[in-house]
Amino acid sequence: MIPFSAKDRTGYFQKLADKKVHILVIGGGITGAGILLDAVNRGFEAALIEKLDFGSGTSSRSTKLIHGGLRYLKQRQFALVRETGKERAIVFNNARHLVEKKKMLLPIYKGGTLGTWTTSIALWIYDYLARVGRNEHKLMLKKETTRRTEPLLKQEGLKGSGLYYEYHVDDTRLTLEVIKKAVENGGTALNYAEAMGFIMDQGRIAGVEVVDKLTGTPFTIRADYVVNATGPWSDQVAGLDQQSGNIKRVVLSKGVHIVVPYYKLPVKQAVYFENRKDRRMIFAIPWWGHTYVGTTDTAYDGDPDHIHATAEDVEYLVDAANSVFTRSPIRTEDISSTWAGVRPLVYEKGKSLGELSRKDEVFKSPGGLITIAGGKLTGYRKMAERVIQLIIDDLKDHPDKPRPVLHEEALTDLSNISGSEFRSDEEFRKLKLYCLSLRHHLEVDEDTMEKLFHRYGTNTEKVVALAETFTSEVSDPYLRIELGSLLYGIRQEMVCSLSDHLVRRTSQLYFGRNQILKYLEPLSALLASELELSPSQLLSDKNSFLKEYEAVMSWQKEKNPVTDTFIH
User: Fold this and answer.
1) Interatomic CA distance for residues 355 and 242, integer angstroms
2) 27 with 250: CB under 8 angstroms?
3) What is the CATH number of the domain that holds 546?
4) Residue 225's domain spans which residues?
5) In the chain, how many domains are there?
6) Which of 189, 361, 395, 528 is deepest in the core (most CB within 10 A)?
7) pTM of structure
8) Pairing mode of beta strands 158-169, 139-142
9) Using an 8 Å Cβ cutoff, are 370 and 228 in contact?
10) Across the chain, how many H-helices and E-strands are there?
11) What is the pLDDT of residues 33-53, one digit of tens each?
């Protein structure tokens, strides 16, 4: 079997059905991905199942930042700032092709909650706790320097700004590359595999009843330990364990982002600004020819499987941006895409949404189900460590249980993820320059090659080689790149649908939506050929994608209820 190929899904299911694993993780977001990698690196035989596609929940709908935790200083969560600062550096070193250091400007206005001295002190504490490198220490800028640094800022009431660094990341690719590395190291991971119930043995969970959602085939996976890492779905999965009861573990907070073409909001660097109407902090971040603005933070009690931006969400973010940036105002008509997701926050009785901590917590049910809830993208590695350490401690307390030969300490701080197998900064630089030089041979522009490198890293040449196989039959060089990327995704990234490729492997639904329909038919034909889809299966898959394609702009229908069609 080819590692992580969608064409070999049946073989992977059979592999799991034929034997017992030490650890089975439910949930294919960044938390589950980190747990799987930590488990296999320490010597456990481990597997992961995800009911939809990897990263399809919260882990593809964040603000795409590896936070150092500046916002947590307001809540005096100093230990959390220290840990996330350390983790940020580790994620950068282990995922070089995905993580980029970005300057972040924090404007200070008269009458706002941010003052010059308080901001300076906060950034200094942040630098100290997060162990920020000297070349990334904060700078405090006066009004005129701030104006030159970001000409788009409104000048009225502007007092100055703070300039510091945050780390930007493709959150979905990070999740996927962590899973790929775990698979390369011996783990097994399956998307579209839903947990339907638990197998019990003398009152203890001994495995999971699973259904392959693509074929409807049921499977049984036995495991010594089962970990519930499903984020917003934590309570739902825990409810499958009848001994757990209906205990509330998480509260959901909805976050929305809007995307506009860069020329509509051409910020020179990322800006972290205070909405001048309600004093809430908002990001405006430039990325690949676009600028995205977010996020909202509102209570959500609906179905996390079906969440989208509303007209109210969109207008809030448009108004927030227009309250700070002076260029001709952004209009809702300028928005090219949106995304919406929910954050799982650990429930605490009597606390409002804004008072809930972003820290993670681990719970163990009477039946043995281990549930991890809460947490942030930045802390995924430490969250994994805590879960695996709990399992190791349990093994020590029960010497009768089968115990693999283990590495007692976590190794993920030294484990580069798939696509980032760089031995030095110089090797990273040389490979990037080499990949950029291929633009002449491939007949594409430099931005396309740079985007390709930052998507696939050390795997870029594999994608390029697959793209070149279409040279004789496809005249459009950009279509060749698209087809090569899809082929690579099917064969080595478990792409099972158009949505897997266009939404999560390449983020084109959010950053490049206006180009998707141009290549949809040839991509559909290749998908059908590779996965041997029948005409009805292909039609169903295309319709499913088109629903997602329209859903990111469904707020327009709310705003214009008289129309019967979506506005593209």
Assistant:
1) 31
2) no
3) 1.10.8.870
4) 12-58+172-249+356-414
5) 3
6) 189
7) 0.95
8) antiparallel
9) yes
10) 17, 18
11) 999 999 999 999 999 999 999
